[in-house]
């Protein structure tokens, strides 16, 4: 995670960002501290990266890359405003002692567009990460990648429209092209389908540890759906970060354990 010490909205690269609307950085910091504390209270270890001045979106650590087992791929951002975050996250990864750390050659916004779902990776394209990045990720991690087309600019990253749960997913079908929505319906017949209202507060931008689901406290319908499936939703207030188009998952780069296939490929 990256503390939002330099958080502000000074450019607009997604429809949530309004440079004329005021942002309360002190509140953003307090809310972020709340998310970190919630992870720690539920037994999760949190590593932090040093926030850099001039990179207001660096708080969205999910975009820094992809880490599975001892392999890490650092991001290559689509927008020049965020370009310097790629090398910053790369340096952090290189310092961790992973067996292999590669800087993405293709435009790749990390876990924003790549969701690790057991033995496969679900990958978004259309606004940020390039389709070529899907192939690069498949090759680097030795895992099958399912490409999905995003079509609604409000849901510009895969993690704004889809959340991986224990053995299924929750998603918002209207964020995807017809063929991609059909692919998801076929792969996950028992998925949770989010309502318009829950998707519109970025309720799907959550993190599931197998039982707890950390998500915005505004997604009350989704929390009820999750509870009905046996999960324990943990509501988090990140209203200031929503002004930049991010929520819980965006603030979190997960360090995934190696899967069987990734270990075999490595
Ligand atoms: N303002 C940031 C951007 O538009 C928000 C990134 C949110 N991150 C995410 N993983 N969806 O790039």
TrEMBL record:
GO terms for molecular function: hydrolase activity. It comes from Nocardia yunnanensis. This is N-dimethylarginine dimethylaminohydrolase. Keywords: Hydrolase.
């Amino acid at each position: 995670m990256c503390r939002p010490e330099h958080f502000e909205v000074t450019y607009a690269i997604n429809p949530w960002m309004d440079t004329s609307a005021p942002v309360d950085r002190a509140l953003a910091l307090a809310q972020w501290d709340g998310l970190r504390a919630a992870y720690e209270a539920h037994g999760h270890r949190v590593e932090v990266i040093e926030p850099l001045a001039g990179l207001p979106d660096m708080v969205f650590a999910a975009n820094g890359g992809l880490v599975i087992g001892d392999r890490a791929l650092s991001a290559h951002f689509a927008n020049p405003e965020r370009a310097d975050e790629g090398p910053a996250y790369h340096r952090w990864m290189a310092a961790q002692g992973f067996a292999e750390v590669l800087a993405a050659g293709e435009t790749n916004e990390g876990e924003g567009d790549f969701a690790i779902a057991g033995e496969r990776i679900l990958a978004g394209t259309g606004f940020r990460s390039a389709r070529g990045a899907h192939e690069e990720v498949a090759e680097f991690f030795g895992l099958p990648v399912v490409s999905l087309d995003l079509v609604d600019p409000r849901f510009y990253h895969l993690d704004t429209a889809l959340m991986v749960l224990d053995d299924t997913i929750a998603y918002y079908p209207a964020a995807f092209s017809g063929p991609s929505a059909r692919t998801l319906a076929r792969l996950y017949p028992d998925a949770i389908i989010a309502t318009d209202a829950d998707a519109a507060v970025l309720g799907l931008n959550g993190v599931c540890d197998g039982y707890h689901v950390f998500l915005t406290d505004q997604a009350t319908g989704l929390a009820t759906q999750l509870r009905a499936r046996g999960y324990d939703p943990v509501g988090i207030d990140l209203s200031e970060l929503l002004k930049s188009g991010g929520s819980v998952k965006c603030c979190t780069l997960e360090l995934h354990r190696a899967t069987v296939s990734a270990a075999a490929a490595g």
